[in-house]
Amino acid sequence: MRTATRSIFLHGMRDGFPIGMGYFAVSFSLGIIAAKAGLTAWMGFVGSFLTRASAGEYGVYSLIAIGASYVEVVAMCLVTNLRYLLMSTALTQKFASNVSLLKRILVACCVTDEIFGISIAYPGNLPPAYPFGAMLISTTMWALGTAVGIVAGEILPPHVVAALSVALYGMFIAIIIPPSKRDYAVGISVIASFLLSWLCSVLPTVREMSAGTRTIVLTILIAAVAAYVKPIKIEDHDEA
């Protein structure tokens, strides 16, 4: 039994290594942002190891840079990472009934988009050892990338740091363009977010709110309106 679990764990590490390579490249750019916010390499490593969320961490580091409150930082991280609640819930359907609650919680705390993808595709019941192996290698490389990015941000010339910091924005653009082309509702939501963010930064009363609060309010508002106007249709595969 122990040998089988070890084999599954190593299988997860093997599948998680390519994910970790991609994570390292992305989190390096994230580390540049963290360095500009004043975080040390150790702080960045621990923060990324425990969070593992590019959009969430970017939002947190941006709020730290402008001196936002703890409440705003927590709210931003919660809003941007709500999708992991759904992913974790979906993964519970893959576990055997005898998987302990502790293991379920640990998997839920460490799930990411890519780990969810390979875990949900695992044939049959999902042994916790598999996502644990994938999470260990990918999370470590993600955290290392952030730490290395912070060190680079502290020693590289300012113009090089400025150029590298643009890489993360490019990643976000790469994320929003494909779904915007496939679904006009997503495209409209993206455009609305840009316009409303700009308006809120210049309108007399709203601009007095902190940038973090404005971002949180707009995120919830735009997502709620989009979900109401253009809800995602759930296809009934049994009718096919």
Write the layout of secondary structure elements.
Layout: H1 2-36, H2 41-51, H3 54-65, H4 70-80, H5 83-91, H6 101-110, H7 113-120, H8 129-155, H9 158-182, H10 184-202, H11 211-229
Helix pairs in contact: 1-3, 1-8, 1-9, 2-8, 3-4, 4-11, 5-7, 7-8, 9-10, 10-11
Mean pLDDT: 81
Category by helix and strand content: mainly alpha
Over all CA atoms, what is the radius of gyration?
A: 20 Å
- How many strands appear in the DSSP assignment? 0
Number of helices: 11
Q: What level of helicity do the residues show? A: over 70%
Largest sheet: none
Shape: globular
Our estimate of the beta-strand percent is under 5%
Residue stretches low in confidence (pLDDT < 50, at least 5 long) are 234-240
**Distance between the ends:** 41 Å
Give the domain tally. 2
Q: What is the succession of H and E elements?
A: HHHHHHHHHHH
Summarize the structure.
The protein is mostly helical and 240 residues long. The chain is 78% helix and 0% strand.
Which properties best describe this structure?
single chain; mainly alpha; disordered C terminus
What does this structure look like?
The protein is mainly alpha-helical. The protein has 2 domains: 3-166, no CATH class; 183-240, no CATH class. The chain is built from 11 helices and no strands. α1 (2-36) runs parallel beside α8, α3 packs antiparallel against α4 and α5 (83-91) runs parallel beside α7.
